[in-house]
Amino acid sequence: MKTCRSCGSSVLALIFDIEKKLLFCHECAPRFCPTLVRSPVYTDKDIALLKSMGIDAGTGRIEQFLRERRNELELNSNRG
Ligand SMILES: [Zn+2]
Fold first, then answer.
1. In angstroms, what is the span from residue 28 Cα to ligand 1's centroid?
2. Residue-level pLDDT, tens digit, the chain, 80 residues
């Protein structure tokens, strides 16, 4: 479980707004991101299953962000 820093709720997953770099729970979503469309929460296993079934999970932008973020972290850790 994860803890929302805004309201203190213990939740299964937090929502990360890539553009604003904000982390919040689904209850706080209307306050931080009023335009967010409520939708099911998918885990990485759900996404892998959807892809294996040939279903576009629409996560390409998020995956690209995470790849870039991971590369940044690796570069920074290699610099010592
Ligand atoms: Zn919250």
1. 4
2. 999 999 999 999 898 887 788 899 989 988 988 877 766 767 788 888 988 999 887 788 888 888 998 999 999 888 86
Relative to beta strand 22-24, strand 15-17 is antiparallel
- C-beta separation of 13 from 4 below 8 A: no
Distance from residue 39's CA to the centre of ligand 1 (Å) = 16
Same domain, 47 and 31: no
- 33 and 50 belong to one structural domain: no
Distance 10 CA to ligand 1 centre (A): 8
DSSP bridge pairs for 17: 22
